[in-house]
Amino acid sequence: MGYPHIHALLEYSAHTGIARSIIRGGAEFHEALLSTFANHLLHTEVDADRIMPPTLDLSVLRTGFDCPQAQADGFIALQVKSLTLMSPDHTVKLECTAMSDGEHRCVTELLNEKVPELLARRWLISSAKINLYYPRESGKARARVVSIELTSKGRLNLHKHDRAMQYQLEGYLVSLGILKPQQTLSAHEVPLAPIDARRDH
Questions:
Q1: Is 168 in contact with 185 (CB distance < 8 Å)?
Q2: Given phi > 0 = left and psi -120 to 50 = alpha, else beta, which region is 139?
Q3: One digit per residue, pLDDT tens: the chain, 201 residues?
Q4: 70 exposed, middle or buried (CB, 10 Å; 0-12, 13-18, 19+)?
Q5: CB-based contact 19:198 (threshold 8 Å)
Q6: Measuring CA to CA, which residue among 184, 181, 140 is closest to residue 158?
Q7: What pTM did the predictor assign?
Q8: Is 130 exposed, middle or buried (0-12, 13-18, 19+ CB in 10 A)?
Q9: C-alpha to C-alpha distances, 6 to 148, 156, 174, nearest whole angstrom
């Protein structure tokens, strides 16, 4: 939707009342997109003060991506592929990635071996990429990979997956405590509530 040179995406769940928007241009573009959506499709007004980014605590990823349900669903390897770390005083930012030679080992495990002081000193995890690997199919050189990208400011890449996979990945993030049920599009246990429009940025 939107202008040819401004790509915009908005996801909304009538069940949970959650809206997520992704758009370049900053806060004003998010507010305009959500306000237009609310006015024309929901026939209601959105208070700009309630459009808050759903900040996420990614600290649980310090020990990897421990999600038994993902393994039960058929993934054979769960890897924290990369992290962006911020020093406690917010003066230094590091981007760390597990190389292919690591054989699907989490970057957190490798960091604890090579530079353990980074995680020990409670550097903030500001973003992460998680790779979930299916078994390699016969005749295929590589296994199928499902990636989750997320930031502490609430940006998620779940919209890149089909709806069934999106629900599945949301469930993993809820089980780890990264997402709250009220922050998901698909949590059926959450009763319908007033619209809580949230933006990613």
A1: no
A2: left
A3: 444 455 566 666 655 556 666 666 666 666 776 677 667 666 667 665 444 556 899 999 999 999 999 999 999 999 999 999 999 999 999 999 999 887 899 999 999 999 888 887 788 999 999 999 999 888 787 889 999 999 998 888 887 888 889 889 999 999 999 988 877 765 443 333 443 434 443
A4: buried
A5: yes
A6: 184
A7: 0.70
A8: buried
A9: 24, 19, 31
Q: Quote the tokens at residue 48.
A: 């700009």
According to DSSP, the residues that pair with 39 across neighbouring strands are none
| Residue 135 identity (one-letter amino acid) | P
Q: Which residue has the tokens 């499902």?
A: 146
Q: Please report where in the chains the tokens 């779940």 appear, as a residue.
A: 158
Alpha-carbon span 36 to 189, nearest angstrom: 29
Q: Which two tokens stand for residue 81?
A: 């592929």
Dist CA 97 CA 108 (whole Å)? 9
155/74 Cα distance (integer angstroms): 26
Q: Which two tokens stand for residue 92?
A: 């230094």
